[in-house]
Amino acid sequence: MSSPTGLPFEHIRHRPPHHLAGPRELIVACPAFRSKVNLSNIVRTCGCFGIRHLITCGSNKLDEKVARDAAQEITIDVHRSLPPVLNKLKRSGWQIVGLEQSTHSECLFSFPFVSKTVLVIGNERLGIDPDVLERLDRVAEIQMAGLPHSLNAATSTAVAIYEYCRQFPSGTPEVQTPEVQTGAH
After folding, report:
1. pLDDT confidence of 115, banded at 50, 70, 90?
2. Which CATH architecture does the domain made up of 24-167 adopt?
3. Domain spans, the chain
4. Which residue in 85, 89, 107, 150 has the fewest CB atoms around it within 10 Å?
């Protein structure tokens, strides 16, 4: 098979990263997960898409085989809980968006992200904690068309990150790093 230009397709393994005009301002905020594989997959997805800041809770360790080089590419802040850090980010002008099935949620595929977004992910079994849910500015939902009724936490995060990046394909030219690094890296 050949490409639309008539030239054959050739496999390129490990193509160099696409250059962005500026880093992406999306921050991903995760609860304590039951599985280190979920957190590791999210870290890898963040690294691949040029997301440079992740906030997590609990004592999850990364599976280096899953996260690969991304763990060295992004800042990972560990906190005891999400509400205090979300409050601080909200006061600093960040929009707090949950990825969840909830009342008044908006379909992810028509969801207009703002560049300064904190994407809050839910726990594998319980979703977003009520203490966190009440701090959200908006909720985006990936609408399901079949069973089971929800995606894995890492998979849904990858879908949401892709949609954010689709809306900001070149990154954001002027990024201000949030000052919430009070946890361990």
Report:
1. very high
2. 3-Layer(aba) Sandwich (3.40)
3. 24-167
4. 107
CB 114 within 8 A of CB 137: no
Residue type, 84: P
Q: Give the C-alpha separation, 55 to 183, whole Å.
A: 9
Pairing status of strand 51-57 against strand 117-121: unpaired
Residue 61 structure tokens = 């360790």
pLDDT in tens, 6-37: 888 888 877 777 788 888 999 999 999 988 89
Scanning the structure block, which residue is given the tokens 């560990």?
78
Non-local (6+) Cβ contacts of 66 within 8 A are 37, 40, 41, 44
The span from the CA of 47 to the CA of 74, in Å, is 6
Residues facing residue 119 across a β-bridge: 28, 97
Residue 184, CA distances (Å) to 29, 118, 142, 169 in order: 15, 19, 32, 31
